[in-house]
Amino acid sequence: MFIDFKNNPKGGGKEHWYEIVNDLGADTKGGGKSSAAADNVVEEIRAKGGKAVANYDSVEDGDKLIQSALDAFGRIGEILRDRSFARTSDLDWDLIQRVHLRGSFLVTRAAWNHMKNQKFGRIIMTASAAGIYGNFGQANYSAAKLGMLGLANTLAIEGRKYNIHCNTIAPVAGSRLTETVMPPDLVASLKPEYVAPMVLWLCHEQCQESGALFEVGAGWIGKLRWERSQGCIVRQKNQPMTPEAVRDQWDKICDFTDATKPTSIQESLQSVVDVLSRVESEEEVSANPAAAATEAVGQKLPPSTFTFTHTQCILYALGVGMSTKDPDHLRFLYEGHEDFSCLPTFGVITSQAAMMDGGLSSIPGLNIDFTQVLHGEQYLELYKPLPTSGTLTSECTIADVLDKGSGAVILLDVNTYNGDELICYSQFSVFVVGAGGFGGKRTSEKAKAPLPPPKRAPDAVVIDSTTRDQAALYRLSGDWNPLHIDPSFAAMAGFKAPILHGLCSFGFAARHVLKHYADNDPSRFKAIKVRFAKPVMPGQSLQTEMWKEGNRIHIQCKVKETDAVVLTGAYVDLHGTSEASPENLTQGGGLQSELVFAEIGRRIKDTGSELVKKVNAVFGWEITKAGKNPAAQWTIDLKNGNGSLHRGPYSGKADVTFTVSDEDFMEVVQGKLNPQKAFFSGKLKVRGNIMLSQKLEVILKDYAKL
């Protein structure tokens, strides 16, 4: 047994790696004792410039082994008794369990607190192919080795908070054990030198792998994972479950087509939870789940309203970390401030009510266990600054349903209105654990795609601390999920403590950009996109890294204490300093065309299916202003679903794209400028299928109230 220690946890000075070489020196059956084996390995390590000491204690004396390491460095072997199962004695069984499983437990327990205190630890459990697959004559050994894998997986979960990583290897290497069961020439070719580099990498501080299982030998390394069939429900409500029902569905139970790959006990239990829900509701399992999911696309949730005052705006600002300690924050915290404003990301609060009122459960084809819903990605775009009070109405549409294998992704498009005016657009991407494998598509052109940051050092970095009560404060803005406040609920979800809302980290990152690149001017904010990668614990510090590319600020957010990336593929789009401020849109200083597109958007909502039948095309618009190209981009999708209106870059492909100035656009739609004359004079430029321009009259004349 090797135990690796790094002597400098605080990062100063030169790093040194030390080895404790533990070998009792027993024979392959556990008898006898000799120091020769451990001494030989120590000499070999020292001869190559390494530092090592030998230990001859039994692994059951874990405290003695760890103390040897501490005495030597100040920080932080096996046997076989092969028998067929019928001939395995209590001694054969107990001795193997004591040495392999209990020994691993005792040694690890002795080191655990030292690793916790230094906030660093790397543990490698040595399992065996016999434990993974079983092997004749090794029932005792197989049980112990697979037990070590279970121990390692749990240690990986419990150690996560303390930067303790635990992995398991199943090595194939020549040793005193394998020389009794392998031909001599094979033992000679399976050198331990072909396993050791893998162990060293897993022990290194740069390796972030944890909770994984690897097979390794002869210079080859492979990672293993579990796979589970889709399975089959074989009982009905108030009816007994019978062996005949199991027999009749056996082929389906064992069919690994579209298999899932659960990675946690929460994902594992999802099937049971889903079964209970379906059986109790007497719901029939769809013969074609992909078709059922497709039915949901385009469905609209009941509209929701959100009434608020300046109190909710201020409470949200406090929830995402604003403080009176920073004078620049006062405009978002004091209703009497001359520039009192609402933070732009408050837009997600106004729109999330559309999903939280139970509307998703009413959509045909969507069978969702809401305890298994995770927030995957978020996009928000503002067309005007948010008011500091009022009543907003949100309309939510199922944009798409994607099959990710281990789960399903539901894309929800939410348009929020202030009266009749479209004020913001949100796209929520939610991941439903265990709901995948229905044979649907994996990607969608309707999804707002995350983007990687430039490959250079960030242009700016902001570090901001969350408080212990950050989640308790943020939830007052309307996200009442007990995962963020109830320790017992968080434990059920696999967390040691309640976690911070992803949208709280989202708000932190957005205001970092707003302050650093827009002088806290909310009228400069245009849009934000993020992917939620890992949870944040209240009290941890958020480090936002920023890269400026024109008016787009790429961002990546990390937990400073652990260096774990929590927001990825993220960016914030800003309006240029010369572009219109929010108030200007109604004062003639902005784009007049925005009013037209807002009206087109409302008409699409009312008569979208009819327009799709008439038009069947996707139109792109690039609106210029004072020579800026483009000042705004719009896409009118009258080809997919019930139609939709998108502002900003479009992830799909338009059939025809028009480029025109804001002034000339208004002249055309008001009938003051003939489109053909505009085209031939160069005022209107067209790319793509120009013949589709004939269908513009349906959109601009019949359906735009001007």
UniProtKB/TrEMBL annotation:
Residues 306-434 form the Peroxisomal multifunctional enzyme type 2-like N-terminal domain. Belongs to the short-chain dehydrogenases/reductases (SDR) family. Residues 599-701 form the SCP2 domain. Pfam families: adh_short, MaoC_dehydratas, MFE-2_hydrat-2_N, SCP2. GO terms for molecular function: 3-hydroxyacyl-CoA dehydratase activity; oxidoreductase activity. The gene is hsd17b4. Residues 453-566 form the MaoC-like domain. GO terms for biological process: fatty acid beta-oxidation. It is found in: Peroxisome. The lineage of its organism: Eukaryota, Metazoa, Chordata, Craniata, Vertebrata. One of its GO terms (cellular component) is peroxisome. Keywords: Fatty acid metabolism, Lipid metabolism, Lyase, Oxidoreductase, Peroxisome. This is Hydroxysteroid (17-beta) dehydrogenase 4. Pathway: Lipid metabolism; fatty acid beta-oxidation. InterPro entries: HotDog_dom_sf, MaoC-like_dom, MFE-2_N, NAD(P)-bd_dom_sf, Peroxisomal_Beta-Oxidation, Sc_DH/Rdtase_CS, SCP2_sterol-bd_dom, SCP2_sterol-bd_dom_sf. It comes from Sander lucioperca. PROSITE patterns: ADH_SHORT (PS00061).
